[in-house]
Structures are given as structure tokens and as C-alpha cells.
From TrEMBL:
It comes from Granulicella sibirica. Its main location: cytoplasm. It catalyses: 2-(N(omega)-L-arginino)succinate = fumarate + L-arginine. The keyword Amino-acid biosynthesis applies. Residues 8-305 form the Fumarate lyase N-terminal domain. GO terms for molecular function: argininosuccinate lyase activity. This is Argininosuccinate lyase. The gene is argH. Belongs to the lyase 1 family. Argininosuccinate lyase subfamily.
Length: 463
């Protein structure tokens, strides 16, 4: 037990199985960059408090840099190299001792692992948020570029998975851009709230040294020190919020993935899957499977799992630090890795998408998707909408019975459903007119979508 950070009061050694089982080093090794950064910040703070003289501070900082520089951040290797390390804090102290000797043992003056892990995790989550925002920027750029390229190409839109009205492909893509912009703002918002420094909170009640807490906070790029030591050492809201924002993003990504999976079926035939992002079947030679979108749909489930695990972990946890919190690390790592993986493939995949515009147009231009525009024509002629709806419904029924679209009915036939029909009816239900009658902010009229695409392009800089 003499190798432990806390052996003093213990006479008996740890049960071997318990010792191995309770270690966090097998997964928290990846916090080494954060642990070293936080330790350097703390070294500055205790030097300012007179615990280290300037030569000692210099030696300490150089030693900490070596700890990071001389380790290959390869999980299995790092973990195998230090079977005695209980966690990342213990590991760093052991390594630092190799480089600076007993001076290393001064580093823990005025600090506790409870504030360290709270700090390391905040730094980790902050980096993960920045990486997510970067990834979102790339993916949104690809979606906006695809919307620009799709010009005036159309597709059917669906409610209840039944064809509804024609929309521009760009309009559909911008729906996802809207979701992703809200996601980006959720991450930015969470980042603002979490950017406070726990260092100086001690084990629970605050450092026992008159530390200037603003020193470490500034060193680490935090906006300020956290205001309450009990909260700071046991708060994991920041991790929960990250996984929750990741969850919402994951739900959005999986909606996109599901739609593309559907579009790629022979039944829809809207999309020819890019070969570089599809796989074959070992059994059925003809297959080209949408593995990317399916895996995306599946991986989004892990994000929900991470957020749920963290929420359950925090629920009912008494103040302040409890060892349960150690279990909150892996869900955060998993969410960060899962998101990073998804966002690493989505931009290129999106750029490679080739819609079958002809089939989408045919699907948008048949099956009475102009019925709402037709009813609008009548209501513009003064027919109350409820009545107009009824008359067009009758015309649709007649069309279905005689195998024709609304535009293929003769004026005489139409007049049987209402004398308001005139020659101008046909021009009001063309594909273009059907799009353009939605001339409102957020509508699919061609001029509105052109504006919306331009506005999305302009907003890209801020994402
Ligand atoms: N490995 C621990 C964790 O992740 C570090 C904090 C340990 N603190 C303690 N009082 N045992 O939570």
C-alpha cells in the first residue's frame, strides 16, 4: 500500500480483486493532456502562494511537460506500462516523480483529486464540444453546398410517409440545416455554462491554502473560478449537458440517415448510394447496402445511452464527491468518440450523394400533390377553403376513377365540381406554381428557397 496516494492510515493491503476492479486508469489514461494542463495551472497557483520558489516551479513545469511528451497516448500500452497506477492522478504523480524526484510530492499541496477530476473532465468536455462544433461546421457546409447544387430540383414531401406536396430538394436539406444549427447552439450554450474552473475547491470545502484561484482559471482558459466548492467537486451537469446535446444531435442525424436509407430503396429509387460508402453482401451478389446510414442510426442509440447513464448516476447522489462519479467518465468518452466518428464520415458522404432527380420529379409531379394548390386556386376565387377542399376532393376522386391527374381533367369535367373553375386553373397547378404558391418565410416557393440557401451560406461562418 505504500505506493498509494493515501496509504498512511491503512495497515492492511487491498484485496487484489477489489484493487484491480476499482481502478479508473484503464480508461482515464486518456485524460493525461488535461491532467498535465491542470497540474501546470495548479503549480502556478501554489508558486504564487509561496509553496514553490521560481526554480522549483520551472522544474515542475518542465517535468510535467515531459510526462506528457514522453508517453505515447496509446491506451493498451499506457495502461500496461503502469499496473500500479490507481488513476490518472496517481499515474501522473508517479511519472513526475521519475523526472523531478521528491519535488513531485509538493504538487499535491492545497489540492484534491476530487477537484482534479472535475477539472480534467471539464477540459475534456470543452475540447469535445469544440471538436463537435468543428465537425458540425463541416457537415453543415456540405449540406448547404448540396442544397446549392440541387438548384430547382424537386422531390415529394411526406406526412405520415404518404406523399404530401412537392418541395425543392434544397428545402428538404435546409430542414436538416435548421436542426443542426440548433444543435450547434446547444453545444455553444453548454460550453458557456461549463467554462468555470473547479481548481481551488479542495476535497469538498475549498483549498486549505490561500490560493488565488483566478491564476489557474486563467491559465486553463476558464472564464472564472467556480463559486461553490461543494458543487464544483460533485457537479457533472456539464457532462450531462454535453451528452444530452449529443443525444439531440444524434436523433437528428438518425432521422437523416433513416430518410436516406428509405430513399436508397428500389421502391423509392431517389438515391443511387455512393459505392465508396456502401457495402456488399457475402451471400447475395447483387446487393449494395446502406451500411453508413444504418450504422449512423445505430450509433445514435449509444448517445442516448450515455446521457441516460449520466442522468441516472447523478440522480439521488448526495453532496459532494462520491466514487460513483468515476462511472461518469466512460459515457462521456463514448459519446465524444461516437460523435467524432459520425461527424468524420458525414461530410464526405453528403458530398458524394447523387439524387435521381428525374425519379424524384416524377414522384413529385404525379399523385395529386398539387391538390392543395388546386384548393388554393378556388379559395382565391372566393370559395371558402372548406368548400374548396371538398370540391377538389371530389375532383381527385373522379381523377382516381378515370386514371387521370387534376391537370388532365377537361374544363367541362371540372366545372361539374364548381363553376369557379376557369382556364387559368391549369397554370395554377403546374409543378412550378405548386411550389411558388408557398411564398412565405420558411416556405418552399423557389424565390424563398433561393434566399434561404443564401442566408444559410452566410450563417456558416458563425457555426
Ligand atoms: N478516479 C477518481 C474519479 O474518477 C478520481 C477522484 C478520486 N477521489 C477520491 N476521493 N477517491 O472519480
Amino acid at each position: 500500500n505504500a505506493t498509494k496516494m493515501w496509504s498512511g492510515r491503512f495497515g492492511e493491503p487491498l484485496n487484489k480483486r477489489f484493487e484491480e476492479w476499482q481502478r479508473s486508469f484503464p480508461f482515464d489514461w486518456r485524460l493525461l493532456p488535461q491532467e498535465v494542463a491542470a497540474s501546470k495551472a495548479h503549480a502556478h497557483a501554489i508558486a504564487a502562494a509561496g509553496i514553490l520558489d521560481s526554480t522549483e516551479l520551472q522544474t515542475m513545469l518542465e517535468g510535467l511537460d515531459r510526462v506528457l511528451a514522453e508517453i505515447e497516448l496509446d491506451g493498451p500500452k499506457v495502461v500496461a506500462s503502469a499496473p500500479e497506477a490507481e488513476d490518472i492522478h496517481h499515474f501522473t504523480e508517479l511519472q513526475l516523480t521519475k523526472f523531478v524526484g521528491n519535488l513531485a510530492l509538493k504538487l499535491h499541496t492545497g489540492r484534491s483529486r476530487n477537484e482534479q477530476i472535475a477539472t480534467d473532465m471539464r477540459l475534456f468536455v470543452r475540447d469535445a464540444i469544440d471538436a463537435t462544433l468543428e465537425g458540425l461546421h463541416h457537415w453543415i457546409s456540405a449540406l448547404v453546398a448540396l442544397a446549392e447544387q440541387s438548384g430547382e430540383s424537386v422531390m415529394p414531401s411526406y406526412t405520415h410517409l404518404q406523399r404530401a406536396e412537392p418541395v425543392l430538394i434544397a428545402h428538404w436539406l435546409l430542414a436538416y440545416v435548421s436542426m443542426l444549427e440548433r444543435d450547434a447552439s446547444r453545444f455553444r450554450d453548454a460550453r458557456k455554462r461549463m467554462n468555470l474552473c473547479p481548481l481551488g475547491s479542495g476535497a469538498i470545502a475549498g483549498a486549505t491554502l490561500a490560493l488565488d484561484r483566478t491564476i489557474a482559471a486563467r491559465e486553463l482558459g476558464f472564464d472564472a473560478p467556480t463559486p461553490n466548492s461543494m458543487d464544483a467537486t460533485s457537479d457533472r451537469d456539464f457532462a450531462l449537458e454535453f451528452t444530452q446535446a449529443a443525444t439531440v444531435l444524434g436523433l437528428h442525424i438518425s432521422r437523416f440517415a433513416e430518410e436516406l436509407t428509405l430513399h436508397a430503396t428500389a421502391e423509392f429509387g431517389f438515391l443511387d448510394l455512393p459505392e465508396a460508402f456502401s457495402t456488399g453482401s457475402s451471400a447475395m451478389p447483387q446487393k449494395k447496402n446502406p451500411d453508413l446510414t444504418e450504422l449512423i442510426r445505430g450509433k445514435s442509440a449509444r448517445l442516448v445511452g450515455s446521457a441516460t447513464a449520466l442522468a441516472m448516476l447523478i440522480k439521488g447522489l448526495p453532496l459532494a464527491y462520491n466514487k460513483d462519479l468515476q462511472e461518469g467518465q466512460e459515457p462521456v468518452f463514448d459519446a465524444a468518440d461516437t460523435l467524432a466518428g459520425m461527424l468524420s464520415v458525414l461530410p464526405d458522404f453528403t458530398r458524394a450523394l447523387k439524387f435521381r432527380a428525374d425519379r424524384m420529379k416524377t414522384a413529385a409531379d404525379s399523385g395529386y400533390l398539387n391538390a392543395m394548390a388546386a384548393a388554393t386556386y378556388l379559395s382565391n376565387k372566393g370559395v371558402p377553403f372548406r368548400k374548396a377542399h371538398e370540391k377538389i376532393g371530389n375532383a381527385v376522386r373522379f381523377g382516381l376513377e378515370t386514371g387521370r391527374e387534376l391537370g388532365q381533367l377537361t374544363l367541362d369535367e371540372l366545372k361539374a365540381f364548381g363553376d369557379e373553375f376557369g382556364e387559368d386553373f391549369y397554370a395554377s397547378i403546374t409543378l412550378e406554381a405548386t411550389l411558388d404558391c408557398h411564398d412565405v418565410i420558411g416556405g418552399t416557393a423557389r424565390n424563398r428557397v433561393t434566399e434561404a440557401v443564401q442566408a444559410a451560406r452566410a450563417r456558416l461562418e458563425g457555426i
